[in-house]
């Protein structure tokens, strides 16, 4: 990353609330072909989330603590703030002297842009403004939120507009928080009803919905130059697993997340 930063555009996509087991099953079954085409070896990497809900996890990720490989470490990090005694800062780590990765990239000349999804990015109150304020530019509309059946399409359209309006020489760090997987997601299954509610199956259908449109996001992110992309979940969620529903709790389905990083060549889709 010490060589990538400054020469590439950067894309971070958090598939908010995506469960690892669902992501793995759909990739193996050929149900998310557009994502699977970019996964190294066609498979997700199993990692542990840095937090059990959106706010905590993103605070950690924006500090350089991406989901950790689910195996004994230490594991060198891609990004890290400079501080004495760090055991996961390696020769190739991009090290910055600011409090967080976003401002660290801004100091390197990047335009930092947030396209929010769930409520912690909606800028409708003090708490919902903390994470977006890290960025030079942030976007959120009700159409991007969890209640919108077309949320990801709307987010991608905004990303395309953002990229199109940037000067070609301007480096970009684009962050997209994808809300479609988060509850409610029942409307991504044909014939489903609000009364039937959300389930692991509707969660899977939401991932298929995201996959149908993510090629446009990849194409926009790599339209000007080579792009380094990170696609991961911030945490999982439960649908009755061992009696639990939701997240912000210590369950395997919450702590285990899918992760991938890869390069997008110019013109990728």
From TrEMBL:
Keywords: Hydrolase. Residues 10-252 form the Sulfatase N-terminal domain. One of its GO terms (molecular function) is hydrolase activity. The keyword Hydrolase applies. The keyword DNA repair does not apply. InterPro entries: Alkaline_phosphatase_core_sf (IPR017850), STM4013-like (IPR047838), Sulfatase_N (IPR000917). NCBIfam families: fam_STM4013. This is STM4013/SEN3800 family hydrolase. It comes from Streptomyces cavourensis.
């Amino acid at each position: 990353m010490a060589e990538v930063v400054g020469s590439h555009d950067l894309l971070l996509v958090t598939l908010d609330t995506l469960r690892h087991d669902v992501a793995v099953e759909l990739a193996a079954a050929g149900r998310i072909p557009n994502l699977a085409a970019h996964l190294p070896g066609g498979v997700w990497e199993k990692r542990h989330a840095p937090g059990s809900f959106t706010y905590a996890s993103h605070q950690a990720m924006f500090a350089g603590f991406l989901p950790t490989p689910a195996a004994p470490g230490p594991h060198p990090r891609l990004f890290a703030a400079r501080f004495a005694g760090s055991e996961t800062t390696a020769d190739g780590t991009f090290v910055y002297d600011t409090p967080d990765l976003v401002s660290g990239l801004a100091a390197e000349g990047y335009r930092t842009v947030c396209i929010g999804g769930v409520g912690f990015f909606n800028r409708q109150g003090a708490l919902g403004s903390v994470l977006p304020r890290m960025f030079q530019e942030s976007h959120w509309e009700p159409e991007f939120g969890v209640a919108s059946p077309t949320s990801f399409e709307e987010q991608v359209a905004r990303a395309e507009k953002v990229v199109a309006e940037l000067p070609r020489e301007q480096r970009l760090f684009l962050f997209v928080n994808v809300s479609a997987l988060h509850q409610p997601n029942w409307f991504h299954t044909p014939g489903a009803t609000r009364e039937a509610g959300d389930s692991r199956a509707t969660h899977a259908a939401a991932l298929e919905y995201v996959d149908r449109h993510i090629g446009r996001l990849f194409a926009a992110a790599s339209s000007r130059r080579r792009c380094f992309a990170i696609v991961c979940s911030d945490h999982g969620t439960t649908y009755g697993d061992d009696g639990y529903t939701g997240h912000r709790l210590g369950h395997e389905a919450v702590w285990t997340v899918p992760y991938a990083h890869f390069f997008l060549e110019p013109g990728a889709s």
